[in-house]
Amino acid sequence: MANKPLLEIKKLNISLKVDDSFIPITEDVCFSIEPGKILALVGESGCGKSVTAFSILRLLPKELKIVKGEILFSRRNEKTVDIAGLPPKGKKIQAIRGGEIAMIFQEPMSSFSPLHSIGNQIVEVIHLHSSVSKKDAHNTAIKLLKKVGIADAKQAINRYPNAFSGGMRQRAMIARALSCNPLLLIADEPTTALDVTIQAQVLSVIKDLQEEFGMAVIFISHNIGVVAQMADDVAIMYMGRIVEKGAVLEIFKRPRHPYTANLLRVVPHLGTLEERRRLEPIKGTVPSLFERPPGCPFGPRCESFMPGKCNIIFPSLTQIKENHSVYCHLYN
Amino acid sequence: MSTLIEIKNLKVHFTQRQSGHFFRKKEVLRAVDGVSFKIERGETLGLVGESGCGKTTLGRALIRLIKPTEGQVLFHINNSTINITELNPKELRRSWRNMQMVFQDPYSSLNPRMTVKEIIGEPLLVNGLARGKELTKQVMNIAERCGLNVHQLSRYPHAFSGGQRQRISIARALVMYPEFIVCDEPVSSLDVSIQAQILNLLTDLQKELGLTYLLIAHDLCAVSYACKQVAVMYFGRIVEMARTEELYYAPRHPYTEALMSAIPSDDPELTMQPVFLKGEPPNPSNTPAGCSFHNRCHYADGDRCSIERPELQEISPGHLVACHFAERLSLKGAQKHSAAAPDDLKGNDKKRHKIVKKEL
């Protein structure tokens, strides 16, 4: 059986407070990740993958509330803490943020201060979580920049973020995220804004460092190719629900949920060039969060829709294999 | 196959003055630096390249939304040839009835204060082609063809989703039934499952209306789906152009190799083996001498490549490359799949998973 999970999300329900009502954004989200593994969260805009990721570090704005559920994190001192229950501005979560769980974002420019040098911003993180000397922190920052492949690290450390290209900024962001040797890295669409050759370099850096540092990674992406190359496991999300999860090879070769199968067929990828097949779009569009369909939210767009079942209740988990489970009435 | 558009040595240079200096230095930004190619009637030519390579500038210069610095754009239509670059403003406006553009951002490319009907109908009105009932009829016709609900045409753009707004842009581009459309990143701002809808729409309309497209995109997979021919741009120049399969799986230019080998395969069993480029993209105001790619190229010889600029030449039928060593190089392409497409969900799936369980 597998290792003890590093992070376990149990029935996480996050809702948006609008006037006096609560609109569900995620519903009963459950997944876990083991130390040293890479899990991809896949889905289209509005499926709740970023909201879930941000909630792990309690970085959600106050309108988005964790209404129910647990975020169990196994800390470096081997104690398990429920992040969902921690005060969002308290000392414990601040120690975890950057120190044990780090995050990188899609737009590196918006997560760096334009008024401080790159080196300054990496050293700041180091000082927040340890009491090393200025000189040692400075040297660690240089070493990290070298590790992520920034040539000329000694000069780079004194430069400002706007002097870097997109790919370099992304690498500097990775260096900062790794400065305290986190157990878990959350990467929210880190290469979506990058050109394909730069993307390949950044992904290679993430993979190498992940192996070297032995950290787990939650990788959010809608790019099927990137997920196939990077992830060990994948969880597919639709309208705030996990619909299928498991080992990436298993899910990609033998998808069980209609949405997963559709998604894999509809996204333009190299395979379609070889197979010379026409992409068949999923009929309809994602409904607005204010008009959530009853039961399974994918029902109205699903070719296997079963009235009287799919529109009444959301399906419970079916375990297909050891590392493959699906939420679908076809398998109940 | 007849040629619809012929581009000859097109250049778009932007001159920037360095202010704050005693001697005002002029810096020339060579966005498009000598591009020549042809687009055949009824074809979709894909134009790919990374940020800053000049592909958007080229697209706009082609229909003279930007004035080219040098070169010619010849449009062969109605048994005559028009040189777009030499038209006066009145003639240019007339020629735009035959050349249109679809833009990347479906949010900023539609006037938020006009109804959808007004947006789509504007080209007809401005060109004196239709008014009143006739205009409404033509607008409804094209809107329906583009998959829009004709009962929603009196709404404003903000009431529509990104994919629908892109359909509005396409309807607007098509309402005068042009011959040629430049699609500048038409699907990159859209959700992945909507991209297929829009790409299919463009392809279907092409067949129905005999359209010719230039599809500019940085998403190599979307381009491979929609285009039979693709050109690769680097730093203001075309470095390679060929049929899609040949370009993707058997490229002849080192830059194309870097691009194609970097595409992540959606088959988890195939590991990526990208060819990483050295260094960083050069400064657009400071074009290196010789081949603009040589300082990042693994195959550059340090001599000829840094002095002599390679010209685009036909290396095999329909395959053009600009590289001194194209004949000798054996390059990597995109990865081919080792397995068939993922299973469809069919009735026998449940049986299948039972069999798999037995094997376990």
Please give a structural write-up.
- The complex is a heterodimer of chains A (332) and B (360).
- Chain A is α/β, with parallel strands linked by helices.
- Chain A has one domain (7-100, 180-331): P-loop containing nucleotide triphosphate hydrolases (Rossmann fold), CATH 3.40.50.300.
- Chain A has helices at 49-56, 91-96, 108-111, 118-129, 134-147, 153-156, 166-178, 196-213, 224-230, 248-253, 258-266, 270-275; strands spanning 7-18, 21-33, 38-42, 64-74, 80-82, 101-104, 184-188, 216-221, 233-238, 241-247, 317-321, 324-327.
- In chain A, α5 (134-147) crosses α7 and α7 packs parallel to α8.
- The longest helix of chain A has 18 residues, at 196-213.
- The two termini of chain A are 25 Å apart.
- The mean pLDDT of chain A is 91.
- By secondary structure, chain B is α/β, with parallel strands linked by helices.
- Chain B folds into 3 domains: 1-17 and 26-98 and 178-227, Rossmann fold (3-Layer(aba) Sandwich), CATH 3.40.50.300; 110-177, no CATH class; 256-321, no CATH class.
- Chain B has helices spanning 55-62, 89-95, 116-126, 132-145, 162-174, 192-209, 220-226, 244-249, 254-261, 304-307, 349-359, and strands at 3-17, 26-40, 44-48, 70-77, 80-83, 99-102, 180-184, 212-216, 229-234, 237-243, 313-316, 319-321.
- In chain B, a hairpin with a 2-residue loop joins β9 and β10.
- The longest helix of chain B has 18 residues, at 192-209.
- Chain B is globular, with a radius of gyration of 23 Å.
- In chain B, 43% of the residues are buried.
